[in-house]
Each structure stands twice: as structure tokens, then as C-alpha cells.
Amino acid sequence: MIWQQFANGLAIGSVYALIALGLTMVYGVLRILHIAHAGVYALGAYVGLLVFRFIPNFWLALAITMVASSFAGIILQRYLYAPLLALPRIVPLIASIGLFIAMEEIFRLIAGPYILAFPADPGLGGIEWGIVRITNNQFLVFLVTVSLLATLWFVMSKTKLGLAMKATSQDLEIASVMGINTERIIATNFLIGSALAGAAGVLVGVYFNSVYPTMGSIPAYKALAIIVLGGLGSIPGTVLGGLLIGLGETLLLGLINIPFPRDALAFIIMIIILMFRPYGLLGKE
Amino acid sequence: MLSVEKVDVFYGEFQAVREISFQVQGGELVTIIGANGAGKSTILKGLMGLESCERGKITFQEQDITHMPTYQRARLGITLVPEGRRLFQDFTVEQNLVAGGYTRTDASAVERDLQRTYDLFPILKERGHQVAKTLSGGEQQMLAIGRALMASPRLILMDEISLGLMPKYVNEVFNTIESLHREGVTILLVEQNARKALAVADRGYVLETGRILIENEARGLASDPRVKKAYLGG
Ligand SMILES: Nc1ncnc2c1ncn2[C@@H]1O[C@H](COP(=O)(O)OP(=O)(O)OP(=O)(O)O)[C@@H](O)[C@H]1O
Ligand SMILES: [Mg+2]
Q1: Is the overall model pTM greater than 0.80, yes or no?
Q2: ipTM entry
Q3: Fold of A2-276
Q4: Is A170 near chain B, with CB under 8 Å?
Q5: Using CA atoms, how far apart are residues B23 and B6, in angstroms rounded to an integer?
Q6: pLDDT for A142-176, tens place per residue?
Q7: Residue A132, SS3?
Q8: Quick one: which atom of ligand 1 is closest to the CA of B17?
Q9: Residue A256 contacts residue A248 (beta carbons within 8 Å)
């Protein structure tokens, strides 16, 4: 039973990590909270579903979604954030919240307020492993998130692009003095983060077999708790934070069965950890 | 090599640099001296493209770079050792140096320059895998210089690189500047330590509240009574 819950928690947690990564990457280079990122996540779910209805192939839907959402991310960067960056940080924050609400309304207008089913079968099959049963959908979530995170890890730690991204997030001006095209690096952060969020949207849509206009609301604030918990701007911290919150929610509520709102737990975990580590798990002062 | 004509730089309403004009020839070591707040750092940032220049013109190797983005100036061969070092704090010594050579494509030349930097500052080799923020102030300053050298620059802008260093390190840093100069690197040096700066420089400019007051050979400046009184302690 506990191992079963553990598998559930890991699946949820790894999706949280995927969503929160974009937020942390954007914060890392621009020091703004990109709330509309959760809109990109919901957009991803809708795009994936749309593609899937035309061509019922999960992998194709996932790939097209990631391309589409990375475009969406770059458009937001260029037309929403770039013009506002010279202004006080509160301005892009408010614009971002406003845009997020607008996106939810647009989804509702176009696709209707209903919960739409996303009955994709990636054709993986489940695994029985002693007492643990990993379902088809859980296996899917693990497979996709682990491959995406591994790719991200490779890019960040083994390539010149990764070096430039890390340098830019530490000191944007000096990175440009080193000859790094920091405008392009900022766009790349939006591109990668949004592709991951889009993928998360598709995964969640399939996992819970539901896509709806406000599906980004809870991830929007939960991702905030996760990146604060992980240490703002820290990529490994965000992955750790996502897994911790996913596991924490599932294990505490699944095992102890206390009558407690699941979605508030993220903040309680965050507050407890910040009491001991004020800069988050892997954050810096 | 570098020519600055009537450049103005503003911070909002405040004008920090007024109608500045000067030249640096290829291979020269030129220094700008001036009191705190005179606008020395602002000039270097303007040359690097970190502050925009409202009026005037900057030319580097016959090319107008007045409005060119910073990274393109870097690719033309200009680099800056910034005030306060500004290392990539979470990078190791070696990662900082590699980042310094970011734009270069010839891996073996980069490797050679890495070795050369380590020869110049053996302590950096010892600390190769240490994270930059844990280095001592002197080590950090050497790393900031080494990082700039890794770009194999044509023109190095150096901002107060001896600030906060023990006399032993100050001498070492100035020795490095001199040997770079001998190798033919063009250097524009901004210094609090006017005595040392004038000792190594070919020419110098005296900056006061955003304007250039005096221009002369370094030796001439060092014996100029106005300079002696204001910057050399009598
Ligand atoms: N970011 C900024 N915003 C507003 N004013 C600034 C800014 N940076 C510098 N200044 C002002 O511009 C003037 C010149 O500053 P600058 O840093 O160029 O001086 P400096 O000659 O390098 O001085 P120091 O020797 O102390 O380094 C100063 O009056 C300073 O207060
Ligand atoms: Mg200065």
C-alpha cells in the first residue's frame, strides 16, 4: 500500500517538477514570476487534445504540443515581458496574472466550460512489480518526465548552451561581456520551459483523462510554492521540490487520511522548510 | 584602434559623462584617473555597451559600435574586467575561465590560453575546481583578469582591478598588466591607484565630474602639479 502511494506521489511530483521548471528558468534569467506559465501548461493540454482528435497518436500529440507551447512561450517573452522589463517588477507580474486569467477565459470561450476527456493510450502497458502496480498512465508519466529531465540535465551540464544559460542566470550583463547573446538565451529559457509545461499539460490531461479551462489554476500557485521551496532559480532544487510536494501530498493524505485540503499542503511543506532553510532547499542567498 | 567622440551618458536625468573624447591606439596602455564618482566606470560601461550613449560616436577598428549590443562588441575583441570582479559565483574557477573563452571556436587555442592563464596565476590552477565565491579577494581578482584574457581580446577595459588587494597582490596585478602590454594587448585602465597606473601607462586622461580636464603622456601627468596635488597626495 505504501509503495503504491509512493508510485502515485512520484508520478504527480514529477509532473509538478515539469511545470515548475519553466517558472524557475524564467525567474533565473529575468527575476520575474511568470504566472502565465500555467496558462501555457493548460494550452498544452488543449493543443495535445486537438491534435489527438485529428490523429489519435499520443506521441505525435506530445511532440506537436511541445513545439506549439514553446512558440507560445517565445511570443509571451517577446510581446508581453520584453516591453515591460524596464518597469518595476510589479508591472510584469500584474500583466502576467492578467494574461493568465485572460487565457483561461479564452479556453472557456473556444472549448467550452466542460471537462473534456483525453483518452489517449500510449501503448505502453502497465507493470506488476510484486505488490506495486504501476499503471499504464503512471508508467507514461515516468517515462516522459525522466527522459525530458535527463535531456534538460544533459543540455544544462554538458553543452555550451547550458554554460551560457547558467552564466546568464548568474549575471546577465557579464554574460554579455563574455560574448553571450543574452537576448537569445532568455528566449531559449522561455522555449525550453514552455515546451516542458506543454508536455506536462498533455501528461496531466491523459493521466486524469480530463482537460478543462481552469486546469492551470492550482498548478499556478503550487508551482510558486515549489520554486520557493527548491530555491528560486535553482533547477535541481525545483525538481527536488516538485517530487517532495508530490510525494508529501500523496503519502500524508493517502496514509494518514486526515481531512485536509490536499492543495494547501504544498504551502505548509514550503513554510516548514523555509523556517529551517530560508533560501529554499538548494537556493542561494 | 578606439576612438570616442563627444560621448554623453545619462542615468535617467543625471548626466554622468559629458562630451568625452579620447583615443586609444593599438598596443597602447592608456589610463583614466579621477576621483570617486568622476564617471570612470561609466565610460568603460559605455564602451562595452552596458550603458547606452545618448550622443556622440564610438569607433573600434574603423567600425561604428556606438549602438552595437554588448555581445557583438565582445565578439569584435573588446572585453571588460568589471569593477567589483563580478565573477560567476556558482561556477568553479575553471568554468569561469571557460565562460571567458565562450565565443572562441578553436578548442586547442582555448586550451593553450587556459594553460597560459594557469602559468600566469598558478594559484588558479590549484583552485581549479573550487567554486568562485569561496576564493579569497585576491584570488577572485586574478580570476576576473584571467577570465578576460581567455577571450584573447584585442582591447581590455580594466576597472579598479587593484582595489581591495594586499600590496603584494597589487604588485602582481600591475606586473601582469605590464606583461600583457608588452605582448601587445591594448589596455584602457581605470585606477584609484593613480601613482601605479601612471607608472605603467603610456598616456593618461584626468577625468573630473564627467569631463576630461587634462590629457598627456603618463610621465608628464605624473609630474603635473595639478595631478600631484589632487591624485598623488601632494
Ligand atoms: N546606475 C546608476 N544610476 C544612477 N547614477 C549612477 C549609476 N551609476 C553611477 N551613477 C552616478 O554616476 C556618477 C559616475 O559614476 P561612476 O561609477 O562612473 O564613477 P567612478 O568614477 O567609477 O567612481 P569610483 O571611483 O567610485 O568607482 C556618480 O555620480 C554616480 O553616482
Ligand atoms: Mg568606478
Answers
A1: yes
A2: 0.93
A3: ABC transporter involved in vitamin B12 uptake, BtuC (1.10.3470)
A4: yes
A5: 11
A6: 899 999 999 999 999 999 999 999 999 999 999 99
A7: strand
A8: 14
A9: no
